[in-house]
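[Discussion] Sanity-checking designs against the backbone

I'm trying to build intuition for which residues belong where. Below is a C-alpha cell string of 506 positions. I'd appreciate it if someone posts a full sequence so I can compare it with mine line by line.
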C-alpha cells in the first residue's frame, strides 16, 4: 500500500476525442481503480495540451481565438471522460496560469543548475505541425512526414534556444539499464536503447515568430522574447500538476501511461529535463499500442472513424470499456470491429456474467427466500475462484489488463459449468438441503469475487452486482479483501433487472 500518482498523456486540443484517446483513458482508469481497491492512495491526473502551432492554425481557420477553441475542445473531452466513468482526480490544462508558471520555473531551474544546457543556435529544418517537431530526413518520405502524410511540411529557419539533450545519452542509458522496469513493455525499451545507440541530437526549446504558448523565461542575446517549444511546455504538466493548490499529487509519478508514438518524448526528453533540473524521474512509463478501426488509426477519409458516442450507446459505457480492454492488448496494437464487439457482448456479458448472476440470484430467491446460506469454501467453484483471483492479481500487477479480464472470465465460465454440474434444481427436488446450501453459498461467494474483479473494467455494473448481493456502500470501499473472503452468510440478495440484456436483433 502506498502512494500511486498515475498520469496519462495530455490530449492535444485540436479535435474531438477518438478511439485512441478512449482506449488510453479507460486502460489507465482500470489501473487507477485497481490500485484503489488494493488500498493505495491514488492520484489520477489527465488533461489537455492546449498550446502549439496546430491549435493556433485551427483557431485561425475557424476564425476564433485559440483560447475559445481549447475551451470548447477541453469541455468535449471532459464530457466524454465523465460518460466513460474515468475516475480522474485532477484535470490539468496547459493554458492554466499555475502550469505556465511551473514551466517557466522548471526551465529557470535548469538555467541555474546547468547553465550550459541551454544555448542559442540558428536552425533550419522541416517542421511537421502534426508532430509539432522538426523531422530528420529519415522521417520524411515523398516530402511528407511519415506519421502525417496528409500534412505539408514547413521549412523553418530561426534562431532559437536549444537544450543540450546530447549530454544526457549516457545518463539515460544508465538509467534504463539499472531500472528495467522504467520503460515497459520491453519492445519499447529496446527501441529507446537503439535510439540512444545512435546518439542524441540537441533539440529546440523555443520558437520564434509564434506566440500561442508559454513565454520562454529568458530573451535571446538579441533581446527577442520567444515562446517555449510545445513539448517543453507539455511534458512538465506531470510535475506542474503537483504544484497546483489543492492537488494531492506528489512528485515523482509512479506511472506515466502514454501511447507508443510519444515514447521518445517521455523516455528521452522528459527524463533529461528532469535530471537537468535536479528532479527525480518518474518510476515507470507504460507505452500502449494503437487501436485500429477499419485498418486505420486516425480517420483519413469518411467512414474510417469510429463514432465514440455510437459505440458507447450500443451496449452502454461499461460494456464498451470492457470490450476495449478485453479485446485489445495493453502492450500491443489491436482493432475495434463492430462484429467482435457484438460477439463479445453476447458471449461474455449477456450469456456469460449476466446469465450467471441472474440464474444464481433467482435460485437463491426461489429456494432460500434470497438469504445466502453459510459459506464453507472448499468447493470446486471456490478453488476456481482462488485461482482466478491469483491470476488476476498477477496480471494486474504486471499491467496486463487483458490477462486480468481473462482471469475473471475464466471464473465466469467455471461458475456457469458448476451450475450445470451441480444442478441445484435437482438437489431442491431431492430435498438435499445441505448440498443445496453449499452450492448456493458458493455461487453467492463467486459473484462477490466477480463484483470486485470486474470493478476496474466495469465500475457501474460492478456496483449494481454488489448491490444485488445485498451489500451497502461501494465495492471499492469493501476492498480487495472480499476477493479472498467472499462470504455473504445471512445476507439477503435480490435478482437485479438484467445486468446485460440480450441485444435486440438488428
Ligand atoms: Zn508528423
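Best answer:
Here's mine. Compare freely.
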Amino acid at each position: 500500500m502506498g502512494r500511486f500518482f498515475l498520469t496519462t498523456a495530455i490530449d492535444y486540443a485540436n479535435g474531438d476525442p477518438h478511439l485512441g484517446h478512449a482506449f488510453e483513458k479507460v486502460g489507465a482508469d482500470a489501473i487507477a481503480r485497481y490500485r484503489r481497491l488494493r488500498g493505495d492512495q491514488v492520484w489520477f491526473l489527465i488533461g489537455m495540451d492546449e498550446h502549439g502551432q496546430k491549435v493556433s492554425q485551427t483557431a485561425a481557420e475557424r476564425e476564433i481565438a485559440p483560447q475559445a477553441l481549447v475551451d470548447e475542445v477541453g469541455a468535449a473531452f471532459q464530457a466524454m471522460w465523465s460518460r466513460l466513468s474515468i475516475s480522474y482526480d485532477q484535470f490539468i490544462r496547459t493554458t492554466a496560469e499555475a502550469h505556465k508558471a511551473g514551466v517557466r520555473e522548471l526551465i529557470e531551474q535548469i538555467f541555474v543548475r546547468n547553465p550550459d544546457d541551454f544555448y542559442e543556435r540558428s536552425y533550419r529544418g522541416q517542421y511537421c505541425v502534426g508532430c509539432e517537431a522538426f523531422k530528420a530526413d529519415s522521417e520524411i518520405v515523398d516530402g511528407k512526414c511519415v506519421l502525417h502524410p496528409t500534412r505539408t511540411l514547413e521549412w523553418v529557419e530561426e534562431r532559437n534556444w536549444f537544450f543540450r539533450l546530447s549530454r544526457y545519452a549516457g545518463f539515460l542509458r544508465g538509467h534504463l539499464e539499472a531500472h528495467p522496469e522504467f520503460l515497459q513493455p520491453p519492445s519499447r525499451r529496446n527501441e529507446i536503447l537503439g535510439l540512444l545507440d545512435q546518439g542524441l541530437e540537441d533539440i529546440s526549446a523555443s520558437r520564434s515568430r509564434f506566440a500561442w504558448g508559454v513565454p520562454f523565461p529568458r530573451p535571446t542575446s538579441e533581446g527577442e522574447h520567444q515562446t517555449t517549444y510545445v513539448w517543453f511546455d507539455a511534458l512538465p504538466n506531470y510535475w506542474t500538476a503537483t504544484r497546483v493548490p489543492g492537488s494531492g499529487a506528489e512528485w515523482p509519478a509512479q506511472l506515466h501511461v502514454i501511447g507508443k508514438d510519444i515514447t521518445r518524448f517521455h523516455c528521452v526528453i522528459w527524463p533529461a529535463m528532469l535530471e537537468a533540473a535536479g528532479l527525480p524521474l518518474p518510476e515507470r512509463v507504460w507505452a500502449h499500442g494503437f487501436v485500429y478501426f477499419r485498418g486505420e488509426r486516425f480517420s483519413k477519409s469518411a467512414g474510417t472513424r469510429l463514432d465514440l458516442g455510437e459505440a458507447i450507446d450500443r451496449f452502454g459505457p461499461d460494456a464498451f470499456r470492457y470490450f476495449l480492454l478485453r479485446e485489445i492488448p495493453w502492450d500491443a496494437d489491436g482493432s475495434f470491429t463492430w462484429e467482435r464487439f457484438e460477439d463479445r457482448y453476447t458471449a461474455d456479458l449477456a450469456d456469460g456474467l449476466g446469465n450467471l448472476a441472474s440464474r444464481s440470484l433467482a435460485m437463491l430467491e426461489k429456494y432460500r427466500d434470497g438469504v445466502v446460506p453459510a459459506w464453507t469454501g472448499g468447493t470446486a467453484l471456490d478453488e476456481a475462484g482462488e485461482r482466478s483471483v491469483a491470476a488476476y492479481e498477477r496480471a494486474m500487477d504486471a499491467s496486463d489488463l487483458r490477462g486480468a479480464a481473462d482471469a475473471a472470465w475464466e471464473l465466469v465460465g467455471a461458475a456457469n459449468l458448476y451450475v450445470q454440474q451441480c444442478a441445484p434444481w435437482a438437489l431442491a427436488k431431492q430435498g438435499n438441503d445441505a448440498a443445496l446450501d453449499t452450492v448456493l453459498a458458493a455461487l453467492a461467494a463467486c459473484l462477490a469475487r466477480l463484483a470486485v474483479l470486474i470493478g476496474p473494467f466495469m465500475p457501474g455494473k460492478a456496483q449494481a452486482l454488489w448491490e444485488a448481493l445485498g451489500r451497502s456502500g461501494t465495492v471499492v470501499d469493501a476492498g480487495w479483501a472480499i476477493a479472498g473472503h467472499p462470504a455473504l452468510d445471512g445476507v439477503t440478495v435480490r435478482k437485479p433487472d438484467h445486468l446485460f440484456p440480450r441485444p435486440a436483433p438488428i
